[in-house]
Design a protein that fits this description.
17 strands; alpha/beta; 374 residues
Length: 374
């Protein structure tokens, strides 16, 4: 595997996650060359210089396009707000760079299609930032499903809840703008959709309801502004092969901090998982005497690869940023032309189509076939 030169655009929450991953991937896995952190781009030169010093990049710039012509840069991490993803990703691919882009692809389906097309034309690796699928617990759940440990799957429920928009007094900001997204659907529900894809395949059809807990929010300068998207969504889904599923997402759920609650029901058992307790899941198998049947807790341990690359003892736990490091390692596999456990732009577009089908279903008040939408 060859050494990679890295460029980073954006240093907010996810930008720092990407930087930590690039800084640590070689140390954690020990089987890849240490990436060169070449240039960091931010909205102005002063902020870029401060962040570059903090995050270990050799150079900085206040103009993201400077990264496109730099021959030292092989791959660009894009961690900006959603609306900027299409222009940046397409430009990077056209410049011959590999791309690691945070989710979702774009607020508009046409832009997501253009991103997919640019990836196809470039032949470069183009990977989305869906790190929850990297959890060793999720990977092992997929193995149990494939092995038939809980029989034939007949129903799936997934809920994603956080409370970062629960306070009605919180000021209006860009995540409540229609230009940014549909709200709970693409800013948020794409994460549980990535888990459904990883475990069961793509969404075939949907019917959706959405609500706005707060019709308007206060402005810092005084007055209020109407909320332009929806913070709560409830969706019935049919997955590949007609599998029944339910997805619920709420950005205004007091007390929920990082909840992705997944329930998988089969003919011979069940699996329960919650991202707030990401180092364990609950397994029920309808075997043995009924008197001893019950859920048992499976704790993350070294035999749940690649947990072993981080910690040599069971039960100590990985964290959110560790999943990003695993995702970074998988991206490096894709750049080398090998199969990686990632969601590329092709499958990312199918997730986007599902989101837009959900929005269409809400508008039309009916079931919508995903592939026929948009």
């Amino acid at each position: 595997m060859r050494e990679l030169g890295v460029g980073l655009i954006g240093t907010g929450y996810m930008g720092k996650c990407h930087a930590l991953a690039w800084n640590n991937v070689a140390s954690v896995f020990g089987d890849v060359p240490r990436p060169r952190l070449v240039t960091l781009a931010e909205v102005n030169a002063d902020l870029a210089a401060r962040r570059a010093a903090e995050l270990g990049f050799a150079a900085s710039t206040g103009e993201w396009r400077d990264l496109l012509s730099d021959p030292q840069i092989d791959v660009i991490s894009i961690t900006t707000p959603n609306a900027f993803h299409p222009e940046m990703a397409i430009a990077a691919l056209e410049a011959g760079k590999h791309v690691w882009c945070e989710k979702p692809m774009a607020p508009k389906l046409a832009d997501a299609i253009a991103m997919r097309d640019a990836a196809r034309t470039s032949g470069k690796a183009a990977v989305m930032g869906y790190n929850y699928i990297q959890n060793p617990m999720i990977r092992h759940m997929r193995r149990l499903i494939d092995e038939g440990a809980i029989g034939t799957i007949n129903h799936v429920r997934v809920e994603m809840d956080e409370d970062f928009m629960a306070d009605p007094a919180a000021f209006f900001y860009w995540k409540s703008e229609a230009a940014s997204s549909y709200g709970a659907l693409d800013d948020f529900a794409v994460h549980p959709l990535s888990l459904l894809f990883s475990l069961f395949g793509h969404v075939e059809s949907v019917v959706t309801d959405m609500v706005k807990p707060y019709a308007e929010r206060p402005l810092k300068e005084g007055g209020t502004r109407a909320v332009e998207n929806h913070d709560v969504a409830s969706i019935l889904l049919r997955l590949e092969g007609g599998l029944s599923a339910v997805l619920m997402a709420n950005r205004a759920a007091w007390g929920r901090k990082g909840r992705i609650a997944l329930q998988i029901f089969g003919s011979a058992g069940s699996i329960l998982f919650d991202q707030e307790r990401m180092n364990e899941f609950q397994l029920y198998q309808a075997t043995g005497r009924p008197e001893e049947q019950g859920f048992r807790t499976i704790l993350a341990a070294p035999h749940h690869a690649p947990y072993d690359r981080f910690i040599p003892a069971p039960g100590h736990g990985l964290g959110f940023n560790d999943l990003k490091i695993i995702e970074c390692r998988e991206l490096m596999e894709v750049i080398e032309g090998r199969q990686g456990h990632v969601i590329g732009f092709e499958d990312g577009l199918r997730i986007e189509r599902a989101v837009h089908a959900m929005a269409q279903s809400f508008r039309d008040r009916r079931w919508v076939d995903v592939e026929a939408s948009g």
